[in-house]
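Input (structure):
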């Protein structure tokens, strides 16, 4: 059975709840379409969504479809769909950058423990994303240091998507 889920607007707990509800549904065992149009949001929530997508990919096809703007945390979610099933529309705008939680706490000396934790998590995330995108880790680190802006054709070349609709 095929199921559609729409991630529109800011990446929030509501997105995670939608996906968890579907994950627990016995009807979803073949295909899940995630349609994404978002300027980004909470990177911790996005990582939770990515973990669930990875789990679902064991038994199902998770098709991600980017349209409109797919920025920040939403772009990471787009990239984690099933290989060969990550798509976008021809006029999409995709932007990737370092996780904001890492940047937010990097300037506060009171959060050294958290900073150390976040640096490790950022490194692990970049390594996983580099593997999915088939990009060298150092290339990806350099490209997302500030902001990496891509149109549909550039996203295809960068391996964020596999096809343009």
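Output (sequence):
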């Amino acid at each position: 059975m095929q199921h559609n889920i729409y991630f529109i607007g800011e990446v929030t707990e509501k997105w995670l709840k939608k996906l968890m509800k579907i994950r627990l549904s016995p009807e979803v065992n073949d295909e899940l379409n995630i349609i994404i149009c978002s300027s980004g949001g909470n990177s911790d929530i996005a990582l939770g969504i990515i973990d669930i997508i990875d789990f679902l990919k064991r038994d199902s096809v998770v098709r991600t479809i980017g349209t409109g703007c797919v920025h920040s945390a939403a772009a990471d979610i787009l990239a984690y769909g099933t290989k060969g099933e990550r798509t976008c529309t021809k006029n999409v705008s995709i932007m990737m950058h370092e996780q904001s939680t890492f940047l937010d706490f990097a300037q506060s000396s009171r959060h050294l423990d958290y900073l150390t934790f976040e640096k490790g998590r950022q490194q692990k995330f970049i390594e996983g994303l580099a593997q999915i995108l088939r990009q060298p880790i150092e290339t990806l680190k350099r490209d997302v240091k500030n902001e990496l802006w891509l149109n549909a054709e550039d996203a295809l070349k960068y391996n964020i998507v596999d096809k343009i609709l």
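Notes: The chain has a mean pLDDT of 85. The chain has one domain: 2-164.
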